[in-house]
């Protein structure tokens, strides 16, 4: 007992000393400290070099200690836990674990005192039990002795194990559909590894002899933490040639029947391909792993199988890998949790357009034989990108270098290049040609190095973007003084070298692999042959004719007694929706519903005119309901007695586009939130605060621009046409409007509107924000645009396609304008998709309203969003417009809070007769002022005249104005105040 007290006191004193050294004596998590230097006086190039110098590849190359070679050291958490300085708690409710464990939730940390026998490199592993109900994996960062040792240690992932339900799922048409997997509640063990899985081996940590402090800081989810293990490197044995045992036994595993997976979204799919089993010509049968779901490094599928006779066995697969043209996908193949030999580490699955048989072979082309004991075994397949990590890192470094060069050139030549003025660029940047040629040579070297994975092909298709980029760099190097006039070819367009390299990275990281079967067989076994040419022809013909009868989810499949619902989404969404309706809505209400995939939302008007409109259309673009309602096609939602109960589920500003007079003709379904995205690592390095106002943005711009960085405003990503989402927020933040009280009173030239539009254009003309940004996502990833305003699509990309910067970006509410009351006004758009009810009989309208109430309710939206994400993955995150439901969906908790706060400022532009002209003229005015340098007020006055002419024409068309120009009935412009008066009775 005395020893434990002295040990605990020693640890506290050690941590306190570290905190003091780091400039703080707080008892909060130590990981506020960092391996990264605290300096703001750095250039962009210096910063990016530091990022490269802080990754694991660089840090580990400078280790001086040897790898630990002793026995595994197990450290019980109840003995090593430093409770005085930690945020978690020691609990005895341990889910069957052998000692007390630590309970940790998001934002909490646990510190451990670890004694090691020698200074060496150690692999660290943990026992853990995911305890959160969330479908998201637990995420954490790890520090050693008060410092995050390298960049990747900030983004550690602790996955759960998922299993399929025992019963298969079928839709009402008899088609087998993907069922939602279930989380398997059990203790897991995992080494500390890269969260993006660029490294498939665990990280090695350099620990000094004696006492060390390890801290685990939970950034997402919750878990119980068991014991800690320190070990040396696990050696994978070399392969020794041997043959499979004599015999003809064969074990066939249908790969679509996955026993365990570490990602819930890995799923089966149906392909009507006669080479696959099982196969049905008339109904969908899940028969292969969906390549679209099995594509990311680190994803693992596992299968159990039984061996009756011990001995050596061959192993084969039926697979297709058709996305990486001429280039393989690599798998780590484990038996009972271990890679049996080096051949099965990053084993290549070659490119093939059709399903093919693959038997694992050695370097001489001989089948690999694996010894298996009698009993149950597990085979696990993990996607690996170890073999191409160097290519990814090199390409990212080249992209950063090109962006730096583009900045230097812009500084020399300015933004407005005069093609008739000679500019001696080489005089200002003497090594410009050498830089370009060096990068081109590096890319050629990369391609040659990667060719070893398929030496038989002269030009590998998957590497073509790298070749195009290298050729582009060489063309520019031939005439370096002409580069200022061809800067778009270098870095600033969709056809630039930077964009080609970004595409190259995306192709390398995408590892889509479809697997039909796994074979484990003895030497004399005969692998199943295909069904044969004639039977394949027969089944293909049968499928062809059955396709004419297959009316599942077709708009032509009508039962007039059922409610007809058209959905403008993919089949996956529709299958899940129909299943929920059949299992929940219909039993509850007695209303039968046929859900159909919408043929084309643009044809809803014609369908209504022809009498073929559905009862409900959902997931239609938020601007469509006005076009239908103004023509009398839609039911006014406010005519239902309980409309307030439903419409108050959403942000008030979302209702404005669906208003005509005192009526509201749509119910929001999803929201396209706009928030501020920022790179936490870069802003911290530069000592910059998150901007609260537009003035704060202006103040931070010199600090960014002097280092070659900038701020992104969404109009830069909209091409030549700037829609309302990009042009109206600043106008509304200044208190401006597009119209006066009525539609015939265009207010673009009113004082407050001019103020807002002036602010918008001056951000580009005076403060030098980039005018055209083809991909904010790519430039956010590489750090040249470390902060900017973007929407849901950007968020989805970052959480699913940018694992290398996970943990190094965040979101905040949008910077706004301070009004006369001192309040920061942060208006943004938010419209996405809506639901509408078509006019018909009173009975059918009531049925439709019951359906809409059910569909947009909190409980249903939460269930739908969770099931969608569990089944199809995080790229299917559901952005419901129901704010209460949104708060319970499996999104990052901190991000949800920011998004919900921003929804208080959602304000959509009204939709009126002729408002498309207002949107177009605002876009034209922006381009005229920012690109062509025209006078703002003259431009807006001209725009007002054009808008007035078109508005008058449309008011006449819809009966609000006579043909001689006299107003028959005023068209009152929808406002936020009017929405609130309707919904809440506010004056």
Automatic annotation (TrEMBL):
Residues 1-26 form the signal peptide. Pfam families: SBP_bac_1 (PF01547). It comes from the Bacteria. Coiled coil: none annotated. Keywords: Signal. The keyword Signal applies. InterPro entries: Bact_solute-bd_prot1, SBP. This is ABC transporter, solute-binding protein.
């Amino acid at each position: 007992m005395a020893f434990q007290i002295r040990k605990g006191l020693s640890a506290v004193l050690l941590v306190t000393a570290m905190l003091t050294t780091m400039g703080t004596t707080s008892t909060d998590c130590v990981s506020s400290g960092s391996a990264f230097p605290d300096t703001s006086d750095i250039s962009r190039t210096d910063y990016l070099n530091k990022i490269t110098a802080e990754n694991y590849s660089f840090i580990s190359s400078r280790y001086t200690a040897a790898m630990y070679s002793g026995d595994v050291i197990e450290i019980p958490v109840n003995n090593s836990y430093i409770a005085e300085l930690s945020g978690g708690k020691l609990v005895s409710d341990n889910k069957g674990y052998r000692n007390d464990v630590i309970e940790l939730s998001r934002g909490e940390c646990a510190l451990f005192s670890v004694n090691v026998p020698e200074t060496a490199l150690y692999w660290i592993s943990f026992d853990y039990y995911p305890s959160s109900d969330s479908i998201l994996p637990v995420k954490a960062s790890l520090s050693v002795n008060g410092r995050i040792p390298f960049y990747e240690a900030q983004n550690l992932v602790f996955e759960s194990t998922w299993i399929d339900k025992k019963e298969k799922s079928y839709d009402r048409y008899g088609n087998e559909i993907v069922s939602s997997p279930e989380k398997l509640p059990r203790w897991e063990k995992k080494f500390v590894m890269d969260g993006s899985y660029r490294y498939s081996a665990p990280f090695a940590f350099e620990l000094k002899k004696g006492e060390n402090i390890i801290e685990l800081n939970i950034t997402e989810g919750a878990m119980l933490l068991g014991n800690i293990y320190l070990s040396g490197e696990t050696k994978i044995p070399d392969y020794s040639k041997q043959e499979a045992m004599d015999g003809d036994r064969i074990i066939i595993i249908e790969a679509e029947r996955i026993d365990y997976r570490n990602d819930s979204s890995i799923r089966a799919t149906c392909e009507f391909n006669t080479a696959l089993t099982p196969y049905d010509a008339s109904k969908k049968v899940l028969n292969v792993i969906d390549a679209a779901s099995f594509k990311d490094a680190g994803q693992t599928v596992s299968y159990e199988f039984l061996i009756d006779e011990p001995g050596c066995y061959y192993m084969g697969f039926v697979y297709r890998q058709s996305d990486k043209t001429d280039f393989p996908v690599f798998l780590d193949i484990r038996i009972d949790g271990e890679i049996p030999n080096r051949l099965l580490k990053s084993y290549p699955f070659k490119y093939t357009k059709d399903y093919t048989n693959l038997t694992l072979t050695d370097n001489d082309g001989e089948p690999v034989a694996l010894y298996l004991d009698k009993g149950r075994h597990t085979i696990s397949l993990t996607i690996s990108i170890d073999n191409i990590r160097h290519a990814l890192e090199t390409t990212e470094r080249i992209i950063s270098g090109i962006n730096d060069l583009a900045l230097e050139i812009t500084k020399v030549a300015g933004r407005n290049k005069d093609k008739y003025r000679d500019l001696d660029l080489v005089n200002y940047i003497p090594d410009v040609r050498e830089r370009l040629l060096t990068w081109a040579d590096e890319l050629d070297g990369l391609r040659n190095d990667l060719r070893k994975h398929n030496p038989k092909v002269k030009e590998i298709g998957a590497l073509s973007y790298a070749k195009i980029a290298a050729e582009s760099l060489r063309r520019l190097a031939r005439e370096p003084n002409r580069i200022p006039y061809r800067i778009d070819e270098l870095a600033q367009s969709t056809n630039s070298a930077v964009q080609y390299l970004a595409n190259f990275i995306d192709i390398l990281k995408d590892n889509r692999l479809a697997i039909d079967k796994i074979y484990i067989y003895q030497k004399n076994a005969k692998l199943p042959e295909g069904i044969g040419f004639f039977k394949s022809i027969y089944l293909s013909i049968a499928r062809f004719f059955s396709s004419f009868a297959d009316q599942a989810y077709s708009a032509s499949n009508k039962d007039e007694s059922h409610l007809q619902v058209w959905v403008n989404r993919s089949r996956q969404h529709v299958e899940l929706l129909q299943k929920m309706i059949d299992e929940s809505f219909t039993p509850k209400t007695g209303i039968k519903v046929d859900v159909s995939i919408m043929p084309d939302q643009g044809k809803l008007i014609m369908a209504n005119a022809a009498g073929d409109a559905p009862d409900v259309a959902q997931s239609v673009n938020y601007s469509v309901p006005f076009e239908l309602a103004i023509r009398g096609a839609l039911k006014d939602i406010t005519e239902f007695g309980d409309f307030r109960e439903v419409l108050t589920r959403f942000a008030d500003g979302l209702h404005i586009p669906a208003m005509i007079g005192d009526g509201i003709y749509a119910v929001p379904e999803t929201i396209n939130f706009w928030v501020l995205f920022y790179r936490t690592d870069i802003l911290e390095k530069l000592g910059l605060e998150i901007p609260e106002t537009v003035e704060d943005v202006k103040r931070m711009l010199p600090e960014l621009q002097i280092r070659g960085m900038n701020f992104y405003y969404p109009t830069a990503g909209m091409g030549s046409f700037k829609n309302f989402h990009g042009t109206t927020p600043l106008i509304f933040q200044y208190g401006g409007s597009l119209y006066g009280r009525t539609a015939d009173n265009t207010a673009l030239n009113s004082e407050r509107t001019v103020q807002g539009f002036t602010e918008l254009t001056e951000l580009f003309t005076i403060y030098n924000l980039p005018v055209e940004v083809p991909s904010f996502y790519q430039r956010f990833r590489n750090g040249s645009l470390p902060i900017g305003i973007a929407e849901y699509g950007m968020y989805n990309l970052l959480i699913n396609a940018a694992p290398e910067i996970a943990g190094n970006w965040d979101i905040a509410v949008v910077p706004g304008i301070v009004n006369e009351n001192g309040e920061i006004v942060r208006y943004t758009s938010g419209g996405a998709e809506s639901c509408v009810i078509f006019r018909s009989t009173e009975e059918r309208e009531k049925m439709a309203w019951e359906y809409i109430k059910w569909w947009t309710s909190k409980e249903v939206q939460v269930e739908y969003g969770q099931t969608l994400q569990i089944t199809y993955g995080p790229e299917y995150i559901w952005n419901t417009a129901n704010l209460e439901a949104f708060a319970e969906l499996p999104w990052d908790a901190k991000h949800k809070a920011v998004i919900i706060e921003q929804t208080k400022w959602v304000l959509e532009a009204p939709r009126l007769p002729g408002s498309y002209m207002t949107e177009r003229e605002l876009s034209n005015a922006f381009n005229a002022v920012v690109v062509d340098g025209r006078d703002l007020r003259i431009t807006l006055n001209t725009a007002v005249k054009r808008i007035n002419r078109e508005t008058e024409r449309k008011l006449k068309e819809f009966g609000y104005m006579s043909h001689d120009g006299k107003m028959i009935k005023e068209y009152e412009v929808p406002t936020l105040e009017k929405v609130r008066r309707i919904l809440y009775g506010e004056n």
